[in-house]
Amino acid sequence: MESAALSVLVQQLRAAGEVTRARILALLAHGELSVGELAQVLNQSQPRLSRHLKFLTGAGLIERLPEGAWVFYRLPVEGRARTLVDTLNAAIDPEDADIRRDRTRLAEVKAERAGAADEYFSRVADQWDKLRALHYSEADIEKAVMSAAGAGPFDLVIDFGTGTGRMLSLFAGKARRVEGIDLSHQMLTVARSKLQGAANASVRHGDATASPYPDHCASLVIIHQVLHFLDDPARALNEAARVLKPGGRLVIVEFAPHSLEHLRTDHAHRHLGVSEADLARWGEKAGLAVKASKMFRAPDDKGVSVMVWAADSVKSVKRSAA
Q1: The CATH number of the domain where 205 resides is what?
Q2: Which whole number is the average pLDDT over 44-73?
Q3: Helix (H, G, I), strand (E, B), or coil: what is residue 87?
Q4: Stretch 126-153: mean pLDDT, rounded?
Q5: Which strand (E) or helix (H) includes residue 73?
Q6: Pair 91, 138 in one domain
Q7: Contact at 8 Å (CB) between 242 and 318?
Q8: Does residue 139 share a domain with residue 187?
């Protein structure tokens, strides 16, 4: 009787054993790409390309990540399928004419992506600069985040509400893998552009209160300036506790309570800061034990204080069946 594992391997080899699909695997070794970007690089129609992608996905050689009206694809993060893809890619001659042409087109597509990200960020830069001016030095806050997270190294780091991907950049050198989620497609475009040089970093569309991750998968979760946007911030802490491994750490950066009402009207803040007492209460209910907290006082009476808060997972939390 044929073994199941051998049957899967044969299916995977058949999936990879076609020129276009081999080129797709080689391209995805450079990072995740949308269907449209792959179509641009390979100069093929999206319907035709989608059939190839469906074949590779069914064989487990690539992963499909829907993002609104878009769909991104990437290689498996780890496991036997990733080992097989890496082995097959290593056997490809980098000077093959098709492979060289694909690399050139990929560079052009990534340049377009970077241009779109720059254009978007230039439109919102003024708002970002005004928000940054309200509180303490970003560099000092980032140092506090690194300190609160601990020395590492970390296995999987997840950033809830990753924005521009700055936290992923900070931790990429201290972790096996860093991944961020965000509900803003435009911010994900910015993050992808900024993370192009980090092979172990990726982003995907996702909700901080209902993330796409399995139970107990992460050694570190970061929630940086996200809670004040949420209707129910406690749900994000519950979700962080669910995806954290036992003993894993959560680091939160958040505005302290303030009275700057224009942040609610002009920047969609649902809450005017979050109190340390609320964080402690939500953390306790989620099964998180506070280990450290640090307050950065506002530079003046017109600014906003910022708190960096760290807690460890102390009880097992699983996704609700509902």
Answers
A1: 3.40.50.150
A2: 88
A3: helix
A4: 79
A5: strand 70-74
A6: no
A7: yes
A8: yes
How confident is the model at residue 314, as a pLDDT?
86
The average pLDDT across 274-292 equals 90
CA angle 216, 271, 137 (to 5 degrees): 80
In a domain, 306, yes or no: yes
Q: Are residues 250 and 175 in the same domain?
A: yes
- Give the pLDDT confidence of 77-121 residue by residue, as tens digits: 888 999 999 999 999 999 999 999 999 999 998 888 777 766 755
For 120: left if phi > 0, alpha if psi spans -120 to 50, otherwise beta; the answer is alpha
Per the CB < 8 A criterion, the answer to whether 283 and 290 are in contact is yes
**Residue 63 three-state SS:** strand
- Which range of residues forms the domain containing residue 270? 134-313
Contact 297, 254 (CB under 8 A): no
The radius of gyration computed from the CA coordinates of the chain, to the nearest angstrom, equals: 22
Band of the pLDDT at 125, cuts 50, 70, 90? low
Domain membership flag for residue 117: no
Any domain includes 319: no
d(CA 81, CA 65): 17
Separation between Cα atoms, residue 247 and residue 122, nearest integer Å = 40
pLDDT tens digits for range 180-221 = 999 888 888 888 888 887 889 999 989 999 999 999 999 999
Query: What is the chain's length?
Result: 322
Confidence at 321, pLDDT banded by 50, 70, 90 = very low
Q: Give the list of residues 6+ apart from residue 187 with CB closer than 8 angstroms, or none.
A: 162, 163, 164
Residue type, 125: A
Residue 255, helix vs strand vs coil: strand
Q: How far apart are CA 199 and CA 217, in angstroms?
A: 20
- The number of distinct structural domains making up the chain is 2
Q: Model pTM?
A: 0.74
List of residues 6+ apart from 190 with CB closer than 8 A: 117, 120, 121, 163, 164, 165
pLDDT at 133: 59
Shared-domain flag, residues 98 and 222: no
